[in-house]
Amino acid sequence: SSVCVHGLGYIGLPTAAVLAEAGHDVFGYDVDVELLDAIERGELHVDEPGLDDVIASALDGSLSVTREVVPADYHLICVPTPLEDGRAELSYVEAAGEAVAAELRPDDTVILESTVPPGTTVEVLGPVLERSGLDVGEFSLAYSPETVLPGNVIAELHDNDRAIGGVDAASVEAAVALYGSFVEGELRTMSDPTLAEFVKLLQNTYRDVNIALANEVAMIAADYDLDSREAIALANHHPRVDLHQPGPGVGGHCIPIDPLFLGQGSDRLDLIERARAINDGMAAYVTDLLETELGSITDTSVAILGVAYKGNVADARESPGLRLAETLQQRVRATHAPGAEGAGVGGSDTDTEIDVRLHDPHVTDSHLALESLPDALSGADAAVIATDHDEYAVLDPTEVAAQLDGDTVIDAKGILDVAAWEAAGVTVVEL
Ligand code: SAJ
């Protein structure tokens, strides 16, 4: 079949490549012309294992990028749906729908993959597509959310089960035919796109709430002088218990955002909002830990190791490490200049400061003023491991101890061999 993929981001591009690999004629479209140029020149350099190769061989085969939307048997919409002012910004979905409508033919199939509030496919996308002059039913319409884990995208595109909600039997059948050509997991069909949208949000909400529970458990365990990770591991031996891991917060562009989409058509969010607040509050808790260890954080220097939102990826969106950096600075300003509370970075009080150094071996964003590891560590009063990059798990404690001025390391991800670090004279505080 011919497939036009709308939006060549971290889902659309790998999906386009995998579809081409499965033998379809794939046209990748994006409004970002520079992105298209870069893809064509093979200059993408995505930090996703295996993706560069899959894209390169797809471009040698039946994948081509297109600067205009083309007619196709299938239109796959994979555009971003960011949260803005507490609401899902659906203008990219609408714009993609309009572009599809201009080329839509009877019996074509349109599938939305973006994460959206329940009701979007039927209530937002459907009416936009009908501007083509065709009614839903004359063309097929389905929702099938992506569920791949950044860092493991190619494997999960093939292996994960897939939920498919179509507006009618023909839509389900058409979507099954497409996904069946490359998905080895189970295709779980339902006759309601809204249900499929809801289920997608539940999966990330489950994770967010579960992580919030783990974070609260970590704070309670500290009050009892217990090791929270050991306690969680022991609790998880029960066949019906699956607690997640505590950490410095929940980052990325999915888990901190998707739960709030559930609130778009319901005012019942309660536990879900508390969970969000607990997870966002972990930066303040780590700041408390630093204050306890250092006495005061004013006029100290703290190295934050890891600004990627999770281990071994280069994505710093909703980064717990960056949130921690901001929280440390705010705390110092609030403590010493109460009048300046809430002031922006570089507030009026220049006498009291904290020197926050940022390091990350994967993130390359030049706006973040990242430092080399030795520069970040040397002379610092404390270091915080905020991301579970493999590189940090194998740090040499003796070397780090020699670089640091102080002897405190907060291991917010629980990746260090505490005995080895303590033997090197470092005080390790775990979450
Ligand atoms: N985290 C914890 N404790 C844990 C697990 C994760 O603090 O026990 C933190 C991570 O460090 C990170 C954040 O949560 O900051 C999110 O990481 P993640 O690995 O849980 O999830 P994402 O955002 O990379 O990908 C999620 C996945 N959803 C689920 O596992 C239910 C992925 O399958 C989805 O495709 C993706 O969201 C998405 O696009 O929705």
Keywords:
431 residues; alpha/beta; Rossmann fold; 2 domains; 8-stranded mixed β-sheet; 5-stranded parallel β-sheet; 17 helices; 40% helix; 14% strand; elongated; binds ligand SAJ
What small molecules are bound in this structure?
Answer: ligand SAJ
Helix proportion range:
25-40%
Can you name the CATH architecture of the largest domain?
Answer: 3-Layer(aba) Sandwich
The CATH superfamily of the largest domain bears the name: NAD(P)-binding Rossmann-like Domain
Low-pLDDT residue intervals, each spanning 5 or more residues: none
* Content of β-strand: 5-15%
By helix and strand content, what is the structural category? Answer: alpha/beta
Main sheet: which strands, in order across?
Answer: 3-2-1-4-7-8-9-10
Cα distance, first to last residue? 51 Å
> Would you report the number of β strands?
15
Top CATH class of the largest domain: Alpha Beta
Rounded mean pLDDT is 95
> What is the CATH topology descriptor of the largest domain?
Rossmann fold
If helices are DSSP runs of H or I spanning 4 or more residues, what is the number of helices? 17
Gyration radius from CA atoms, angstroms: 24 Å
